[in-house]
Amino acid sequence: MRAPTTLTSVDLSGLWRAQLADEDLRRVFHLNEFDDTGWPAIDIPGHWRTTAEFASTDGPLLYRHRFEHPAPAPESRAWIELDGVFAQGDVWLDGSYIGDTDGYFFTHSFEITDQLHEHTAHVLAVEVSCPPVNDPGEKRSLTGAFQDGDHLPRSWNPAGIWQPVRIVETGPVAIRHGRVICADANEERGALAMRLVVDTVEARTVTLHTLVAGIEHEHAVSLATGENQIEWSVNVPLVERWWPHALGTQALHDVRVEVRLDNGEMSDHRRWRTGFRTVELRNWRASVNGELLFLKGVALSPLRTDLAHVPREEIVSTLRAIRDAGLDLVRVHAHITRPDFYDIADELGLLVWQDLPLVHRYSRGVRTQAARQAREAVDLLGHHPSVFLWCAHDEPYLAEEPRDAAVSPGFLRQQLPTWNRTVLDRSLKRVLQRNDQSRPVIAHSGVAPHLPQLDGTDAHLWFGWYHGQAADLARFARRIPRHVRFVSAFGAQAAPDTRPFVADEFWPNLDWAYLAQHHGLDVDTMVRVVPPDSYASYDAWRDATQVHQAEVVARTIETLRRLKYKPTGGFCAYRWQDVTPQIGFGLLDATGGAKLAWHAFVAACRPVIVVADLLPPLLKPGDEIVLEVHVVSDERSGRPAGVVRARIDTPLGPRRWEWTGDIAADDCTRIGQIEWIVPSTVGPVTLELELAVDDLLVTNRYRSVIGLRHHRPA
């Protein structure tokens, strides 16, 4: 057999030229003879807003790049590949239109063999558009969190050629699409489901050569002229499996597929890195390789406004911090991020909840394009063992709908069918299921149980923020247990320690409208929850917002962990970090600084915690208080003879309790009960819990206050 042919690739990244589009330029900018010497230079890859000349424009923008490339060798074909264009593009080469792009996160490629044979000097021209969202209920661009939601400023536009551009050469048979999915994995074998779409200039027979984990697989395929879809499977005996970091090691294997001609030469190839594992989600209880796992997770915003310039080490640092915080799951919220993010998640053993880039409502015209992008998402990410679940659409309702209840928008408002939820989302779920049968798929996120089956999805519950108190979640769970099977959004906004965007000389008379428009603050909710008028200074109010956020996050997690598997399968807090300077939901601020909630979050996510029922916020002398005490463990083995101590401190002194018992593995264990009568005094109350078992010491603390009982007039 002859040695495989070496295929070439030429990177066209670097300095291009660009200009704001107008009707006159559109008619001529793509022509070779057009003079662009007066146009500003722009870096590719990149977002045009990061270039001074285009820092405030919404475009469209016209790009041009001159390059030289020789004619392809005989029997070879040439393609131009654009790895990422935000969000739509029209592409010309040497004055000829070669195609359009739609979808920011995947590669678009066009054959340019004939053009390269005509001469060696070439001009690539691209018109890029990413229109701002003017009507939130009728969006047409599928850009998700980059242009809707509270992750980024509404004024930001992510537009641009944000990923590399290259020219590649192949043989006469080229791979147009490729997909690798782990179809099965057990102790005896692993199985990969393989799919290629190949294009050939004439009918012929080729050999597909697959190499994975030292196993070679070959089979001959007869091709018709044009595009051909090929599917096959590869079985690997006794393959080492991939596990999330809480359950085991992260074995990864290279997969290489070559298309070989009848003379033995390689015509094209693809390479992936994958892991063998199975995932299931039954009644929102997750298992990996058959092992049950309670999912502790967090939602992740776009890593930066300028996603093109996020260095690999920043992604590694972020995901390692998430793993080291004791989490199993990261939700890539309402967007698809950089490709290297998923490689790093594979290596670190984190599971990924992957949203499509759809959030809130869309125009009816997006259905076909959304279905295509769902298929492309599977091609792009299907081989990653970390990708655990597909979600088609986050909160398929208007963000401006009233959020005056813990389930927002309210339960009753979600009972009527809508085109987005009923038609679009179900259609996308079917597309994802057809293209990837190895993973759970949900049609939408944050949808309440609704008629006719009264079966919702995951829940977005905002106790302590949009409605009530964090303590109300426990009563809600008893009343509607189906709605706490998996809670994927909860939290509260808090001000960061750094405040370069706040001028507080006239506190409390801040420019609240400015903070809402540019720094994410939900003014109405914050004024109700942490009223600025109640604090003497901005700093005191800021500290109070952080204390409140920490309390909401910690108590919500404790409540959900106490419901472990009965019925709760996990949670996902909203969110890890604010991307830009905000009074936002992030546990970390835009500089990476930790708010108080981050420390509370990490403590609540420890493998073993000791918890009690929440004290009422106001105690009165003579109240009879009964509190259940539990230990929740995520450890895979139990611990015998644990000792739990409780102490309540009041101005009259302490009261103590102590229990001894075994701590069950991967379960919630009831330890004992505190029965206490509130003494006749006023002042602060502290409940301290301590668990000591083996070399493990775990503590927790709850606070309340004793106030005077008010007497009604006679």
From TrEMBL:
It catalyses: Hydrolysis of terminal, non-reducing beta-D-mannose residues in beta-D-mannosides. Residues 217-277 form the Glycoside hydrolase family 2 immunoglobulin-like beta-sandwich domain. InterPro entries: Beta-gal/glucu_dom_sf (IPR036156), Beta-mannosidase-like_N2 (IPR054593), Beta-mannosidase_GH2 (IPR050887), Galactose-bd-like_sf (IPR008979), GH (IPR017853), Ig-like_fold (IPR013783), Ig-like_GH2 (IPR006102). This is beta-mannosidase. Residues 62-132 form the Beta-mannosidase-like galactose-binding domain. It is an enzyme of class 3 (hydrolase). One of its GO terms (molecular function) is beta-mannosidase activity. GO terms for biological process: carbohydrate metabolic process; glycoprotein catabolic process. The lineage of its organism: unclassified sequences, metagenomes, ecological metagenomes.
